[in-house]
Amino acid sequence: MASSVNPTVRRRRLGQELRKLRELKGMTAEEVAERLLVSQSKISRLENGRRSISQRDVRDLCGVYGVEDHRIVDSLMQMAKESRQQGWWHAFGDIPYSVYIGLETDAASLRVYEASLVPGLLQTPNYASAVTEGSWPEATTADIERRVQVRMRRQERITDPENPLRLWAVIDESALRRIVGNREIMAEQMRQLVQFSLEPHITVQVLPYDVGAHPGMYGKFSILEFNDPQDASTVYLEGITSDLYLEKPNDVQTYSVMYEHLRMQALNAEHSRQFIDRVAEEWAAEL
Predict the structure, then answer these.
(1) 56-115 per-position pLDDT tens digit
(2) Rounded distance, CA 248 to CA 284, Å?
(3) Cα(115)–Cα(123) distance, rounded to whole angstroms?
(4) Which residue segments constitute the domains of the chain, with CATH numbers given?
(5) How far is the C-alpha of 157 from the C-alpha of 104, rounded, in Å?
(6) pTM for this structure?
(7) Is 246 helix (H, G, I), strand (E, B) or coil?
């Protein structure tokens, strides 16, 4: 469940405040880096919340920006302290997409398009294990178990009875047809998809093959939105060795429009449920 202090979100908000102070001072990131004898990339990473920030960093930056109000400095120092706390996901060791998990944990809604697999938040343990084993050939049994545990813990956001994550998933038909693990695992996964789709806060739509070309052909993406207006909507693009987070309004708008086109081209929720149910029967037919 989302905790009262989410270190990822604290870093984002702190970075936003530091960027505002720099812009009010009329300085570029390069100028600040020169004053502090650090790299420009460090200043950029601090401002976009992708790098851990220390209280010393905050003190030094406030000094460069000429912040004299001790209440502002103290508030920023406290945010820096909270941003260095560990989220629940840190207990599982080095998770490559930990920044994303922090954002997902605090998000109010998530729109996701998946082209080749069932979205992580909707996966069964068996499907998640088979996906991890197939996509990470060098993974040990312990590695796979750890990734599955993290994925199941993430699912608490959509099963939280008090504050469930609003999830909208558009899934390409290929994700339902590609065998992951074995036919039994696929049948089980399809049945779980149907059950999740019955929840009032979860919408699942299938994008069938016969729609032809569509905006999602460039690859999967997710759009996270937050209740707090201080937290900008974010587009998440997952990569093999690194991930990309887009927060500029124009970028978010572009992907939001793409998502609307995908939703319109996909089967509606009821027809998607019927489609997935038929696929489940097909997978189970030859067990």
Answers:
(1) 888 999 999 998 888 888 888 888 887 777 666 667 766 777 778 888 988 999 999 999
(2) 45
(3) 15
(4) 9-83 (1.10.260.40), 91-286 (3.30.870)
(5) 8
(6) 0.80
(7) strand
